[in-house]
Amino acid sequence: MTESWGQFKSFDGKKFNALDADFTREVSRLLGGKDLTTCFQCAKCSAGCPVSDKVNIQIHEVMRMLLFGLKEVLDTDMIWLCTTCYTCQERCPQGIDITDILFGLKNMAFKKGITPSGYTGARQSLYDTGKLYEPTDWERDDLELDPVPELNVADTRKMLDKTKLMKLEEAE
């Protein structure tokens, strides 16, 4: 397996911790996780995944790790690079809500402080400016666009404060 382009690296040679049935039960309680144990590893989800060549572990392998109770699944880049296109979910012959499970895994990982490095910066930028990306003047000039109007970020901050997105920490 080759190294991925993201922060998470290949699992080649990694020794996994013992299986944790409690973790599997916890994931089964996530939105969409109720059908987790019906996965029979047909790999149709991975075959249709548009990011399958960019991740360190395929989506069917994520599902297998969940069945085996391997918490290391939270260290995979699949949960962060998923485009939420729902292709895996639509292709699943068992009707497993795979994308919904990935959303839950992303939340679990975030609460444990496992995030790609750019995620926290993007979250802070959204809170501070109301934008994930601040275009430069020269980029807008090249495209012959008017200057970006000032944005009132009060509503954005109110929403982020209400959802406690900025408060999520490892201890929560």
What does this structure look like?
The protein is an all-alpha fold. It has two domains: 21-111, Alpha-helical ferredoxin (Fumarate Reductase Iron-sulfur Protein, Chain B, domain 2, Orthogonal Bundle); 117-163, no CATH class. The protein has helices at 21-28, 44-48, 59-67, 78-81, 87-91, 98-111, 117-129, 137-142, 154-163. It is elongated and about 55 Å long. Mean pLDDT is 81; it is low at 1-8.
Question: Taking all residues together, what is the mean pLDDT?
Answer: 81
Supply the CATH superfamily name of the largest domain: Alpha-helical ferredoxin
Instruction: Report the CATH C-level class of the largest domain.
Output: Mainly Alpha
User: What kind of oligomer do you see?
Assistant: single chain
State the helicity in percent bands.
40-55%
Percent range for β-strand residues: under 5%
CA-based shape:
elongated
Count the E strands.
Answer: 0
The gyration radius over C-alpha positions equals 19 Å
Largest beta-sheet details: none
In CATH, the architecture of the largest domain is Orthogonal Bundle
Q: Which class best fits the helix and strand makeup?
A: mainly alpha
What's the SSE pattern? Answer: HHHHHHHHH
Which stretches are low in confidence, meaning pLDDT under 50 for 5 or more residues running? 1-8
CATH topology name of the largest domain, in short, is Fumarate Reductase Iron-sulfur Protein, Chain B, domain 2
* Termini Cα gap: 34 Å
Helix count from the secondary structure assignment: 9
